[in-house]
Amino acid sequence: MIEEAAKLLARSRFAIAFTGAGISAESGVPTFRGFNGLWKKHRPEELATPEAFRRDPRLVWEFYKWRMDLIRKAKPNRAHYALAELEEMGILKAVITQNVDDLHREAGTRNLIELHGNIFRVRCTSCGYGEYLKESGRLEEFLREKDLPRCPDCGSLLRPDVVWFGEPLPRSALDEAFRLAERADLVLVIGTSGVVYPAAYVPQIVKETGGKVIEINPEESGITPIADVFLRCPAGEAMEKLMTRVKGLIG
Ligand code: APR
Ligand code: ZN
């Protein structure tokens, strides 16, 4: 299977990757549906909604600061670095991710489409203000801050710049993702349950437009039925083996 996947990747003209929480599991970031722990008796679905934020913004911000603190300590793993290297080699044209953890960027991926936003970005609930806390250097201070975060321009509440349940995805990111999927002749699907739409359309569009689907997941997912090659394996191990073979093939 690794051999077959490596051949498809080495021969591809326009390969992309589509990733979910599973690619960050080996970096210590809990997956959503694998997150069997409740945060203070709350399920993420209860907190990651506009209704929850209207009802109790202090509780939602406590949850997000907890996640931001957990994720900022996580490091990219072999799978993140392998995708960045495949892009460097000119094989991978883009990474489309459902993850908000910023680990693809940390690993060096340049053409990154974040369909569900980024947990280190905040935006104002009323004016267009937005801030990437890692770039502005305010992350530490922001996490320590006890008061509710307010917009420096208009004083309204700031919210995490992520897509909450029931919210539409950022139009430009979704359009770009679908455009890339139509153009791609191969998609590497890593660590997603493939049940959350419209993101999960990405591998299906590649398939419907004649492309190949390689899936890496220790368990079967909603994508497995359309996979041409299914590598039942954790992402780090699978990507390490795949990179060795691809390099062997392209010499
Ligand atoms: N390597 C590869 N895949 C893994 C690994 C691993 N080490 N560990 C777990 N997985 C797989 C699981 O088998 C599962 O299929 O990763 C998948 C994680 O699925 P989810 O938790 O459902 O995460 P994801 O598919 O990214 O969820 C999509 O749902 O909750 C919303 O917005 C949130 O972006 C998220 C979206
Ligand atoms: Zn504002």
Topology of this protein?
Elements lengths: L1 H10 L3 E5 L24 H4 L2 H6 L1 H16 L5 H11 L3 E6 L5 H5 L4 E3 L2 E8 L5 E3 H4 L2 H6 L13 E5 L8 H13 L2 E5 L10 H8 L3 E5 L12 E3 L3 H16 L1
Bound molecules: adenosine-5-diphosphoribose and zinc ion.
Your description of this structure?
This protein is α/β, with parallel strands linked by helices. The chain has two domains: 2-29 and 76-116 and 169-250, Rossmann fold (3-Layer(aba) Sandwich), CATH 3.40.50; 44-73 and 121-162, SIR2/SIRT2 'Small Domain'. It is 39% helix and 17% strand. The strands form two sheets. The protein has a six-stranded parallel beta sheet with strand order 3-2-1-7-8-9, sandwiched between helices. The chain has a three-stranded antiparallel beta sheet with strand order 5-4-6. It is elongated, with a radius of gyration of 19 Å. The model has no long low-confidence stretch (mean pLDDT 95). The structure holds adenosine-5-diphosphoribose and zinc ion. Zinc ion is lined by residues 124, 126-127, 129, 151, 153-154, 156.
Brief summary:
By secondary structure, the chain is α/β, with parallel strands linked by helices.
Counting DSSP H or I runs of 4 or more residues, the number of helices is 11
- Count of all domains: 2
Low-confidence parts: none
Share of residues in strands:
15-25%
CATH fold name of the largest domain: Rossmann fold
Strand order, largest beta sheet = 3-2-1-7-8-9
Reading the helices and strands in chain order gives: HEHHHHEHEEEHHEHEHEEH
Ions and ligands: adenosine-5-diphosphoribose, zinc ion
Give the C-alpha Rg.
19 Å
| Overall form | elongated
Overall mean pLDDT: 95
Question: Percent range for helical residues?
Answer: 25-40%
